[in-house]
Automatic annotation (TrEMBL):
The keyword Transport applies. Belongs to the ETF alpha-subunit/FixB family. It comes from Vibrio variabilis. Coiled coil: none annotated. The keyword Transport applies. This is Electron transfer flavoprotein alpha subunit. PROSITE patterns: ETF_ALPHA. The lineage of its organism: Bacteria, Pseudomonadati, Pseudomonadota, Gammaproteobacteria, Vibrionales. InterPro entries: DHS-like_NAD/FAD-binding_dom, ETF_a/b_N, ETF_a/FixB, ETF_alpha_N, ETF_asu_C, ETF_asu_C_CS, Rossmann-like_a/b/a_fold. Keywords: Electron transport, FAD, Flavoprotein, Transport.
Length: 302
């Protein structure tokens, strides 16, 4: 069973990748959609390749995806499934450990390859090594790294929908206050084909604007190292790395980034990596970005 991440209207791209991973486990694949007025999400997932059944819990109390509210509902269904999966996003990392604790099983985190129904490959030491792990638990709870799997196909096929009643357990631990979301015309960082990231070498927020101009010219997303985020050049939702977002675009351009192991863990699977960096970064940065802007604008980025 895959737990769908969504905003009651649209599916998070990594959910479709988690479905692909689930299909490699063998057997029937179901999806759980919990939300409020989320029928459009359910209708879309009915046509996801490999999905044999969609569970839907639609209730006002699930308008906002608080892990403390969702966990009892997921736990109730998890008992009837051999595997419970979610993408290794903030949503999945917050929800599934709670489910695993209630099931009294260990969690397999950040899976990048499925070897068998109980054997998986996952990165360790910030991606410098890969570990093969095997779970002997009666049920397996796992998060899946989206950058390691292709999204499953969507079609007009219709898997059956099972409507379930909400769980009566009340959430007295947390309360939803509000959401502050950056609206941008640029592609989403996690799923963009082109990502341009800036680091400490840019030296100022004003210089970081050059990265934004390059991203706009290439139709790419903006990323940043932790040093750039800590310096206030950009907001922390753009951080790429071990403690940020994991990306694997067709083209990754790193501007003024030293290449620390924590940052490399978040982008090393990119198909083409271009580094703009030198000992004279501050003096030559503007020239380098202008040159690369012209070069990259001529590349075929299909």
């Amino acid at each position: 069973m895959v737990i769908a991440e969504h905003n009651n209207n649209n599916i998070a791209p990594d959910t479709l990748k988690a479905l692909n991973a689930a299909s490699q486990l063998g057997g029937a694949v179901s999806v759980l959609v919990i939300g409020h007025q989320c029928s459009s999400v359910t209708d879309t997932l009915r046509g996801a390749a490999g999905v044999t059944q969609v569970y839907q819990i639609d209730d006002e109390r699930y308008q906002n995806p608080l892990a403390e509210t969702l966990t009892p509902a997921v736990f109730g269904l998890a008992k009837d499934h051999s595997h419970v999966l979610a993408a290794a996003t903030t949503f999945g990392k917050n929800l599934l450990p709670r489910v695993a604790a209630l099931l009294d099983v260990g969690q397999v985190s950040d899976v990048i390859r499925v070897e068998s129904p109980n054997t998986f490959i996952r990165p360790i030491y910030a991606g410098n090594a890969l570990a093969k792990v095997q779970s002997n638990d009666s049920k397996i709870v796992m998060t899946v790294r989206g950058s390691a799997f292709q999204a499953c196909a969507l079609s007009e096929d219709s898997a059956p929908v099972v409507n379930l009643d909400p769980t009566e357990t009340a959430n007295t631990i947390s309360e939803f206050i509000g959401i502050e979301q950056t609206v941008s015309e640029r592609p989403d960082l996690s799923s963009a084909n082109v990502v341009i990231s800036g680091g400490r070498g840019l030296a100022s927020k004003e210089n970081f604007a050059l990265v934004e101009r390059l991203a706009d010219k290439l139709g790419g997303a903006i990323g940043a190292s932790r040093a750039a985020v800590d310096a206030g050049y950009v907001s922390n939702d753009l951080q790429v790395g071990q403690t940020g977002k994991i990306v694997a675009p067709d083209l990754y351009i790193a501007v003024g980034i030293s290449g620390a192991i924590q940052h490399m863990a978040g982008m090393k699977d990119s198909k083409v990596i271009v580094a703009i960096n030198s000992d004279q970064m501050r003096q030559s940065l503007r020239w380098q970005i202008m040159v690369w802007s012209e070069i990259c604008s001529k590349l075929c980025l299909n």
